[in-house]
Specification:
This protein folds into two domains: 212 residues, Jelly Rolls; 78 residues, Jelly Rolls, CATH 2.60.120. It is 15% helix and 37% strand. It contains seven helices and 22 strands.
């Protein structure tokens, strides 16, 4: 007999990274003793890193098992027809104590051919940033393949990259093929297609504790890179309280900004699950008599079958995500 579905929390999957720091522990209360926690995978169906339920009657079951059991009730009819027993999104918090590598991601076509995987379009929401922190998104000038290759060969790549100073609330859509990097001092929420494919182009000449440099993928990246100079990666959005404000809409997901200062009633009119990432404060999500709290740094999945629920808070900010 199936358990009735309810808002589901998962155990974070914590990743030690050469560039990671302590903010996921100190600011987002992640329970971890790794020295450099770079990422907290909040909801993941990446092979080898499948999320495990942390609350309620489904505790200790995997996301993969939920998908095969509940199907469209969990993710929506349209999504189940398209993705089957694969969850379409990977949800993360990222702490960059040091600069991440300069990198890009392939599109669906290249990723399917080379890696039997989805491509990777993603978005960033800056939660906290040290003074003078920045992100790299795209080029700072019109670019050709020849000009790019010359700077790559001369080790002067950073001269042609677009550096964006950031403050909390800044939001960027990182489309496939766009060169990018998260800069030192930035803590952000990341929403992306379910894919762990990254082509690393430049890694600041750093080495690990054994003195080894990380692998680069400059040839693979060159075939996947976009030289198109469209400076439209930064999202502009409203912050009207107690209603959903669209931040990013792309073929793979939509994300809304939700600032809550009083109880609000949510009606899920989409043929999709809803994900809430709490980026400030805490809220109570109520479905009938069932209540679940999420605090800053926590994430919850509301199954597609649940069409109405209430969110209560006096002061909190959520990212609301659906496909």
């Amino acid at each position: 007999m199936k358990t009735n579905l309810y808002p589901i929390k998962f155990h974070p999957i914590l990743k030690d990274k050469i560039w990671g720091g302590k903010k996921l522990k100190t600011l987002l209360n992640k329970d971890c003793h790794l020295p450099n926690i770079g990422e907290s995978w909040e909801i993941s169906d990446v092979e080898g890193d499948t999320s495990i339920v942390a609350n309620g009657d489904l505790e200790n079951q995997s996301l993969k098992h939920l998908l095969s059991t509940y199907k469209a009730d969990l993710i929506g009819k349209k999504n189940y027809m398209e993705f089957g027993n694969t969850f379409p999104l990977l949800i993360k918090f990222i702490d960059a104590k040091e600069d991440l590598s300069i990198q890009l991601h392939p599109n669906d076509e290249i990723a399917a051919k080379r890696h039997n995987s989805f491509g990777k379009t993603e978005m960033w929401y800056v939660m906290q940033a040290d003074s003078n922190s920045n992100l790299i998104v795209g080029f700072n000038q019109e670019m050709t393949s020849d000009k790019y290759l010359k700077h790559l060969k001369d080790n002067t790549l950073t001269k042609i990259l677009n550096f964006e100073s950031v403050i909390p609330g800044d939001t960027f859509i990182i489309r496939e093929g766009i060169i990018h990097a998260i800069g030192a001092g930035v803590l952000l929420a990341e929403i992306q297609q379910t894919s762990d494919i990254t082509y690393r182009i430049y890694d600041w000449d750093r080495v690990d504790s054994q003195g080894n440099k990380r692998e680069l993928h400059t040839d693979l990246a060159f075939e996947a890179i976009s030289f198109n100079l469209k400076n439209d990666s930064k999202a502009v959005y409203n912050k009207t309280e107690n209603q959903s404000n669209n931040m990013v809409r792309c073929p793979y997901f939509s994300t809304n900004y939700l600032k809550i200062t009083k109880p609000i009633f949510i009606e899920n009119t989409f043929d999709s699950f809803l994900i809430y990432m709490c980026v400030e404060g805490e809220v109570i999500i109520s479905v009938g008599t069932y209540k679940e709290t999420i605090k800053k740094g926590e994430t919850i999945l509301v199954p597609a079958k649940i069409k109405t629920f209430e969110i209560t808070s006096k002061n909190a900010t959520l990212l609301e995500v659906y496909v």
